[in-house]
Amino acid sequence: MQNWSQGRRSFLASSIGALASFTALPLLPAAARAATFPVPNKPVKLIVGYPAGGGTDVQARILAQFLAPLLGTTVIVENRPGAGTMIAGTEVAKAEPDGHTLMYTPASTLAQLPHTMLALKFDPFKDFTPVAQCALGPTVLVLHKSIPATNVKELAAYAKAHPGELNYVSQGIGTSAHVFGQMLAKQAGIEMVHVPYKGANDVAKDFVAGRVHLQFASSSGAAALMKSGQVRLLGVVAPRRSELFPDLPTMSELGVEGMDLDTSLGIIGPAGMPAATVARIGEATRTVMAMPKVKEDFRNGGVEVQWADSQDFAKTIREAHQGWGRMLAAVGFQKQ
Questions:
Q1: Which of 67, 138, 215, 320 could form a disulfide with 111 if both were Cys (CB 3.0 to 4.6 A apart)?
Q2: What value does the mean pLDDT take over residues 144-158?
Q3: Domain ranges (residues) in the chain
Q4: What is the CATH number of domain 139-237?
Q5: Top-level CATH class of 36-137+264-331?
Q6: Which band of pLDDT confidence, cut at 50, 70 and 90, is reported for residue 302?
Q7: Does the pLDDT value for residue 158 go beyond 90?
């Protein structure tokens, strides 16, 4: 009788354990995804919303090179240029949230595009996971040397004396350079002709040749243009002076208010990424950004390394989204 009771208790314990294991089965897929990142023999795609060869692309390739051994898998940079990074952003938003599809991008993909594009196919706060901020790179007001001005006051005087002659360039309607140009024109009380381009390489060629006169360039673009000897840097779009261009005043110092946004760059992924995967990629990114070689390469390319974790990067994106809203309202910009 005693043996039978012991056997019954053993059977019940086994049954309860089996039932508990069965009940837990629905929880396994998400946990398994986090535990198995990276998936064996599956590369990580680091998507860039610009053509190959530009500053953002170069930074992404540096990241990919050093991230690969830390993550234990191949990291491939894929360029998806067009529509102000909307094409790249849409691809990432629709990807499997397993950590194998990421995007290296300026925060403007999520902070600015929702204010400027009618056909936006993603929600900046519901469809993405901020993974880590990597760098800051202020936008720089660059002027061709054929225009005799060293500050905004002199630029305004020139534009008023030569109506219809001064132009400014961007990579499309609604891009940062376009909006900053509108802000400058409005506050300086001048008219400038907007010349939109499709690619940064064509912009650089025509700018150096003097066919276009003014642009708000990325810090990496401004650093490259300086090497031509044909341009003059007037100021930076940032809340404070940049360590990269310490002698350049902010736009506020030049008398143009409301253009005080930092330009942060970092890694984002699709919504729903497991926290453990986000943490692992974030920590690997922090290790990479602390490497002296990477800091030097980023600085030479015109951006300053400044790492931040997922939560802080998300906060930066949200604050930038609010700032862009105020700026676009100030110039009366209508979504395109």
A1: 320
A2: 95
A3: 36-137+264-331, 139-237
A4: 3.40.190.10
A5: alpha beta
A6: confident
A7: yes
